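From the pipeline queue, job 12 of 40. The input is one protein chain; the requested action is below.

Action: predict structure.
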Amino acid sequence: MTTQDRPLSPHLQVYRWQWTMAYSILHRATGIALGVGTLLLVWWLIALATGPEAFDTVQAVVGSFIGRLFLFGWTFAMFYHLGNGIRHLFWDAGKGFELEIAAITGHAVPVSAAVLTLIAWAIGYAVA
C-alpha cells in the first residue's frame, strides 16, 4: 500500500463539522496569537528602555494601519481566550455540560469577545 492509497485520518472520515470544533481551533489559534503578540509587547518594552529613537521606530510600526490591525486582532484574541478560559473553568467545576448550556456559552464567547474588543477600542480612541 502506498501513501496515496492510505485512508485519511479517521477523524476526517468519522466526525461531522461542529461549532465546538471551530471554537476549539479558535481557542488554540488565539493562544498562538497571544504568544506572538507578546513578542510585540517585549519589543515595545525593550525599545522603551533603549531610548527615544528605538521607541519611535516601534511606535511607527504599531501606529501604522497594519500595526493597529494586528493590535485589534490581538485584543480580540485576548478577550476570546479569556472568555473561553472562564468557560473551561466552569467545566472544571462540573458546570455547563448540558448540551443547550454548552451551545449557548460556546456561541456567547466569540460574540462577547467581539463586543468587548469594540468597547475597548472605542474607549481607547475616546481617551486618546
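Job complete. The chain is about 85% helix and 0% strand.
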